[in-house]
Write a structure and sequence with these properties.
The chain is an all-alpha fold and about 425 residues long. It is built from 15 helices and four strands.
Length: about 425
């Protein structure tokens, strides 16, 4: 009986020590407890009643091996969990992932995949309507020599038009402007617009003479519309050229740094596109990559074609120089470095030129917009008082001067905005 009781006490002691071992983190103390548990196990093996029976309750005692296995499993699981958590904490403390890495980790943990929605660009209803009306004639006109510069400007300006469609839009817009010009012609045939109240008055005198004076309106408005539509791609090309030239020095410096890693030259353009820092140069690089991936040209051939279709002369020179360097086996980092230095020098000269021209514009603004209206207003008032000039009152003269100054300010600010280089 005493042996049975002592065996039960030993097993209970083992269970109690195993529970304490799960809570203790000190390695030295854990070793001592484990050593003590091993000693109790050896003592228990020597006992005769390892699997005894409780005579009072007639219930079999639990196997000590089962208890040991359960406790050891709990200890191992908790130790593994603690170790894993501590390692994860240490990794997060040391490596501190960037924002993109955090997002990637979140997507991996959640098992979410972002769905990429691609939107297809379609022609507007106005373009479709103009194509339905003038598609055949536009295709024939596109072959004429007169429209060859227009086709080149459409490609270089990155406008989303094919030549035939743009010519169809030109014809339809000119036709609409012709009907508008007829309405304007009829209005001015019977009415006058003056500076004195009432502003709109009926025409007095012969209608025939009035017809001779205003008949040109029916031809001027459609002609101006056609010429604007014809030269609009050229203006867009010039605007794109200026914006590309502003970004080119810094993009070239970036390309020089990337090329120092001796990667494939075509990957340099992909890296520049992926940064998203160069909006207008990025469009030209996308066209270059499309020449390789879609049309099947090699890098040198794609560079030659992109140089031919680029709106910027400086970018064309860069493409041609890069194609020559690749063909001759030259040093790409050295090429990009020297080209970036020359482009940055030109950029500084243009900035200095713009600063000087801004000073000139400031002098013109002071003389034209501030001094001249005051002098002109004084002259008009003196002429009105003496009866030598117009018979308008001071209020009407002031209104005309304020309106004139406002219009001049708007035109001047528009001119400065067009001349200002992009930052």
């Amino acid at each position: 009986m005493e042996k049975e009781v002592s065996g039960r006490k030993v097993s209970e002691e083992i269970v109690r020590l195993s529970g304490q071992l799960e809570k203790i983190k000190d390695s030295g103390e854990r070793k001592l407890i484990k050593k003590h548990i091993d000693g109790l196990k050896e003592k228990l093996k020597k006992s005769e009643n390892v699997f005894g029976v409780d005579k009072k309750n007639s219930k079999p005692l639990k196997s000590i091996k089962d208890v040991e296995k359960q406790e050891e499993k709990k200890i191992i699981d908790s130790a593994m969990e603690e170790t894993l958590n501590s390692e994860l904490i240490e990794i997060e403390k040391i490596n501190k992932p960037m924002e993109l890495e955090r997002r990637a980790l979140k997507r991996i943990r959640r098992g979410e995949e972002k769905e990429v929605i691609r939107k297809e660009k379609t022609a507007s209803k106005y373009v479709k309507f103009s194509n339905n009306l003038f598609a055949k004639s536009s295709k024939e006109m596109a072959k004429k020599t007169f429209f060859i510069p227009l086709k080149r400007d459409l490609i270089k300006a990155n406008l989303q038009f094919i030549p035939a469609s743009y010519i169809s839009v030109m014809i339809l817009t000119t036709l609409i402007s012709f009907f508008i010009s007829i309405f304007v012609f009829i209005f001015f045939l019977f009415f006058n617009i003056g500076a004195v109240m009432p502003i709109v008055t009926l025409v007095e005198g012969s209608i025939f003479i009035r017809l001779i004076r205003v008949f040109w309106i029916m031809f001027a408005i459609p002609l101006a519309t056609f010429l604007f539509m014809y030269y609009y791609p050229s203006m867009e090309k010039k605007s794109a050229e200026d914006k590309i030239n502003q970004e080119l020095p810094f993009a070239t410096i970036h390309m020089a740094a990337v090329s120092g890693s001796l990667i494939d030259p075509s990957n340099i353009f992909k890296i520049i596109i992926s940064t998203g820092e160069y909006e207008y140069i990025g469009k030209e690089f996308i066209k270059l990559i499309n020449e390789i991936n879609i049309y099947g040209y090699d890098l040198v051939g794609a560079l030659r074609r992109s140089a031919f279709n680029s709106p910027s002369r400086k970018l064309s020179d860069l493409f041609n120089g890069l194609a020559t360097t690749i063909t001759s086996g030259g040093n790409l980092p050295e090429f990009f470095e020297k080209r970036s230095q020359s482009l940055l020098f030109d950029y500084r000269l243009e900035r200095e030129k713009y600063t000087r021209s801004a000073e000139t514009f400031m002098d013109i603004y002071i003389s034209v917009v501030i001094a001249a209206p005051m002098i002109l207003m004084l002259l008009l008032i003196m002429m009105s008082v003496s009866g030598l000039g117009i018979s308008s009152g001071p209020n009407m003269i002031a209104f005309m001067m304020i309106l004139g100054v406002g219009i001049i300010n708007v035109l001047f600010l528009t001119f400065l905005n067009l001349k200002q280089p992009t930052t």
